[in-house]
Write a structure and sequence with these properties.
Elements lengths: L5 H26 L11 E7 L1 E23 L6 E6 L6 E2 L4 E5 L2 H33 L8 H33 L2 E3 L4 E6 L6 E2 L6 E16 L11 E6 L5 E9 L9 E9 L10 E7 L4 E7 L4 E3 L2 E8 L2 E7 L3 E3 L2 E4 L9 E5 L10 E5 L12 E8 L1
Length: 388
């Protein structure tokens, strides 16, 4: 019975121990809880100072780089099998160099037959001419009648006409024979090789193509409202996508009329390329400066949210962040440009951490260097609009 009386005491002790341990755990958990609202703490952000510069709008047009002259070489008069193709893409050829030959044994035989017929008719005409002369000389003695002399003279003239017709036919067959040897019409490079020996080609089929790249034409179509901005002899900058190089040139030609379907004006820029480094048939950009330089400020494009014609940034005044909306002057090379009246030079603009900010929120700003700068220290050009 004595052992039974100890059981309630042990249970009570265990319960008390559990309650003490629970109370300690609750107190420990509550000590780790932050009772200060996050909104009342300053948000860490990175900022950059808006930099004063000079902005000049530009127009950018995407165009194509074409060779100065291009020719597809193939037969013009005959259909035949290709005998040889002597060049491949990349080969440099001279004017008159043989590029390919056709199997023209049939045309050669026809040309020889026509030549022999022309020679036979020529001999017959010569004999008739002599006979007509002799008969005409006998008219004075009354040995032949005038009618007989006139008939012989007309027969000689008819044979002469047959000779001329046969010679004209011989010229036609000669053209067909000459069509069997295909030569380069000018000095240049082989761009394409369309067929190999053994293929059957018809008039108009291209076997190879030749391009002259000594001068490359940059062509583009610009909107009609930019007619005055692309006047001939105006200096432009051309960016070649294939090589990544920028070339300075001038507009050589501008169409006097717009395309009726697209309402665009065609322009061309001649680019001398004696070393033939620019690949033709590729694309590039023509950048044209418009307007006059004007004061501006630049900030990183990553610091702004651009929607339609508006841009939104967070600026820091004191220790508070404020939303600023403005109309950008333009953007280029990772930089967005604004008028000094919208964002004064030196204004601190949030670059990192702005996605978590709201109007008037307290911030702890860390200054950093601008991550994008313009090409010059005191001036810059920006893309106002891009046209396809």
């Amino acid at each position: 019975m004595a052992g039974t009386g100890k059981i309630p005491i042990l249970v009570s002790a265990a319960v008390a121990a559990i309650l003490v341990v629970g109370a300690l755990l609750v107190r420990h958990a509550e000590s780790k809880t932050n009772n200060v609202a996050l909104s009342s703490e300053a948000q860490p952000v990175s900022v950059v100072a808006a930099r004063a510069t000079v902005f000049r709008p530009t127009r950018t047009y995407v165009g194509r780089l074409d060779p100065w002259v291009e020719a597809s070489v193939g037969p013009q008069f005959i259909s035949a099998y290709v005998d040889t193709v002597l060049v491949r893409p990349g080969a440099v050829v001279k004017a008159g160099q043989v590029l390919a030959t056709l199997d023209c044994r049939n045309e050669n035989a026809i040309a020889q037959a026509v030549a022999m017929q022309a020679r036979s008719l020529d001999e017959q005409q010569r004999a008739l001419s002599h006979e007509s002369t002799r008969i005409t000389s006998m008219l004075d003695g009354g040995f032949v009648s005038p009618n007989e002399a006139e008939m012989k003279s007309s027969e000689s003239a008819a044979k002469q006409a047959e000779v001329l017709a046969q010679k004209a036919k011989l010229i036609g067959t000669s053209l067909a024979v000459n069509d069997c040897i295909l030569s380069a019409p000018f000095a240049g490079d082989i761009a394409t090789r369309s067929v190999d020996p053994g293929a059957f080609v018809k008039p108009g089929s291209a076997i190879v193509s030749v391009v002259d790249r000594a001068t490359v034409r940059m062509t583009a179509d610009v909107p009609e409202n930019d007619f005055n901005e692309v006047a001939p002899r105006k200096q432009v900058t051309i960016h070649v996508y294939a090589t990544g190089k920028d070339i300075v040139g001038t507009i050589a030609r501008r169409a006097p009329a717009a395309d009726p379907s697209s309402r665009t004006i065609h322009i061309e820029v001649d680019i001398p390329d004696p070393s033939r480094e620019i690949p033709v048939g590729t694309t590039g950009e023509i950048v044209v400066e418009v307007g006059s330089p004007a004061p501006a400020v630049e900030i990183p494009l990553s610091s702004a949210t651009v929607e339609d014609a508006k841009s939104t940034v967070f600026i820091v005044e004191g220790d508070k962040a404020h939303v600023k909306t403005f109309k950008p002057l333009g953007e280029a090379n990772g930089v967005i440009y604004a008028a000094p009246s919208d964002i004064p030079p030196g204004t601190r603009v949030v670059t990192e951490g702005r996605s978590l900010l709201s109007e008037g929120e307290a911030v702890a700003a860390t200054m950093e260097e601008a991550r994008a700068r313009s090409s010059g220290d005191a001036s810059a050009t920006g893309v106002l609009e891009t046209q396809p």
